[in-house]
Design brief:
By secondary structure, the protein is mainly alpha-helical. The chain has helices at 5-15, 23-31, 33-47, 52-68, 87-98, 108-119, 129-140, 150-162, 171-182, 195-222, 229-418, 423-431, 456-473, 479-494, 521-535, 555-559, and strands at 73-74, 81-82, 499-503, 513-517, 564-565, 568-569. The protein folds into 3 domains: 1-82, no CATH class; 134-360, no CATH class; 419-569, no CATH class. α6 runs antiparallel to α11, α8 (150-162) crosses α11 (229-418) and α10 (195-222) packs across α11 (229-418). The longest helix has 190 residues, at 229-418.
């Protein structure tokens, strides 16, 4: 939402901060209400800051906001101010940017007219639409080709596929004859296996034996019945004759058996020839039937192809007619598109001219933005120098606080170890009126007022020691009584009318010798309270009283607590 100056005034009044705004802030809040509202929030943060660090961060945030709007910067809590050297230039440039206005095109009317012509041109309407639609419908519904010969073709193809391979009716006889011929062994003759040769051998052996016996008998009769070598020789010759006659029969018998082998093979070939002729006759009949089926199928396929050609010609004619109409329609659409493109080109030309003018307008605006950026960058440099100065001052302040804390801490440590108040602790005790500037030994700076920047915890620790010093004056009394004494003694000292000298033994019940010159009523009340506490015999050490608000301090504070005897803690 957009904020107004009244929103700023309401927020500032509600926060109780309206009087903290100077005229420069109010002027900027009128021009930029969001600036004023942001400044209200940051000023509230500054007022609520508890530490120096928080104050510095809030101040820096305020300076950054003012710098962003070309205003001035202020130091911590407004006690330092820094006027931006480029503030007026930044303001003038921002005014020019704010008053630059919006772009006003000189081609607006022409562009609007051209856009109207383009948007109102309307879709293309074809003069051939209905004819194209009819032809497209006819083509879509033309349907697939349906053959008038399909059943006959299927039946003939099935007959051919079922015809099967050729099978001879007497295939077994043919195979046996063919096997006998192709596996016929070569002719061989063995007389020992020839029965006719065996018959001849028996006959010739018998005749040879008889001839040998006759020859042997005749020879023996010639020699008076004795068998001579000549007789034996004659008998052997007779036997050999018949043996030779048997051997002469072997070639004769072999020739006879070979003739028989040839005659048997020729007869086998003749039978195979007869079977082959019969088989070939049956195979020819098989081939003739198959060829007739194949011719019938070819005739049917030819008739079917002729019908399909007529079907396809009609479909092609429909496609050609559609293509002719579509071509003419495309010509008409091209003319329509050319007219539309001319309108679009005219519009684009006007838009291009307008874009050029807008570019020049934008360039001038960007130049102003660049000038503003240059001023702001230089302004940022000046701000950084100022910020460095503020940070240096702040660091010096922090160093001074750190030195004071360190000095006080060292003095506390010395007191805890020796019971002697020196340096910063001595100054603090002297400022409280517990000791005079020359008591307790050691030296120090100018009073406790110079240590206001130290931490609360360290201040509390120093106060604990101050209470312990008071207890050292009245050993064995409660911390509250000692603190009452510190307060009353400090008040009395501020009037310059107290002079207290005390000597205390190491025992909480020992005699206290007091010489109190010019003590006030408050001092007397504190001493009376201490005496009563001692009389009650209720000795308490520092840090044990439930009424002490500092009993829960840090370990450093606890070390400063305890009963002091002879000036040292035990």
């Amino acid at each position: 939402m957009a904020y107004t100056y009244n929103d700023f005034v309401t927020a500032a009044n509600n926060a109780g901060l309206m009087d903290s705004f100077d005229t420069n802030d109010l002027d900027y809040a009128k021009k930029y209400p969001e600036y004023g509202l942001s400044l209200v929030s940051l000023k509230r943060d500054l007022n609520n800051a508890q530490t120096n660090e928080q104050k510095l961060l809030a101040t820096e945030a305020i300076n950054q906001l003012r710098k962003n709007y070309g205003s001035y910067w202020t130091g911590d809590a407004g006690d330092r101010s820094y006027a931006a050297s480029y503030g007026s230039k930044i303001n003038d440039t921002m005014d020019k940017i704010a008053g630059y206005g919006s772009y006003d095109s000189k081609y607006g009317d022409q562009i609007a007219e051209a856009q109207k012509s383009v948007s109102g041109y309307g879709p293309y309407s074809s003069a051939y639409g209905s004819q194209i639609k009819d032809l497209t419908g006819s083509i879509g519904s033309y349907g697939p080709y349906a053959s008038a010969y399909k059943d006959q073709i299927d039946k003939t193809q099935k007959s051919i596929s079922d015809y099967g391979p050729f099978k001879y009716s007497d295939e077994s006889t043919y195979k046996k004859l063919l096997d006998a011929v192709t596996n016929q062994k070569a002719f061989s003759y063995d007389p020992e296996t020839d029965e006719l040769f065996s018959t001849y051998r028996k006959a010739y052996n018998r005749e040879g034996d008889r001839a040998a016996a006759n020859a042997l008998a005749q020879a023996a009769s010639a020699t008076g019945g004795r068998v001579s070598s000549f007789a034996q020789q004659a008998a052997q010759q007779a036997a050999n004759y018949y043996a030779g006659q048997l051997a002469d029969k072997v070639p004769e018998l072999r020739g006879q058996r070979y003739n028989e082998f040839v005659n048997d093979f020729n007869m086998l070939l003749q039978k195979l020839g007869v079977s082959t002729t019969d088989r070939n006759t049956e195979y020819g009949q098989y081939q003739d039937r198959l060829a007739q089926l194949q011719q019938n199928l070819q005739n049917l396929l030819t008739l079917d192809q002729t019908d399909y050609g007529r079907y396809n010609d009609r479909y092609t004619q429909l496609l050609n007619s559609l293509a002719a109409l579509q071509g003419q329609d495309q010509v008409e659409y091209g003319r329509y598109q050319d007219t539309y493109n001319r309108l679009k080109d005219n519009l684009n030309t006007l838009l291009s001219l307008d874009q050029t003018d807008y570019g020049r307008w934008t360039d001038q605006y960007n130049m102003l933005q660049q000038v503003l950026a240059n001023y702001q960058n230089q302004d940022k440099t000046d701000y950084q120098r100022y910020l460095d100065m503020v940070n240096a001052e702040y660091q010096r302040d922090r160093d001074a606080v750190a030195d004071a804390e360190k000095e006080l801490q060292n003095a506390i440590t010395i007191y805890q170890l020796t019971g002697q108040a020196t340096g910063a602790l001595k100054d603090l005790l002297a400022a409280a009126g517990l000791i005079s500037g020359g008591d307790a030994g050691g030296g120090g700076g100018g009073g406790g007022g110079g240590y206001g920047g130290v931490s609360k915890e360290l201040q509390d620790q120093a106060n604990e020691i101050a209470a312990s010093v008071a207890q050292n004056f009245a050993s064995g009394y409660s911390k509250d009584a000692a603190k009452d004494y510190v307060a009353s003694h400090a008040a009395a000292t501020s009037n310059g009318n107290a002079n207290v000298n005390r000597s205390i033994s190491g025992s909480p019940t020992a005699t206290m010798s007091q010489n109190m010159g010019g003590q006030t009523a408050n001092q007397a009340a504190a001493q009376a309270a201490a005496a009563k506490y001692q009389a009650d015999g209720q000795k308490k050490t520092v840090g044990t009283s439930s009424s002490s608000s500092s009993s829960s301090k840090s370990s450093g504070s606890s070390k400063a607590s305890g009963t002091f005897v002879g000036g040292k803690a035990k």
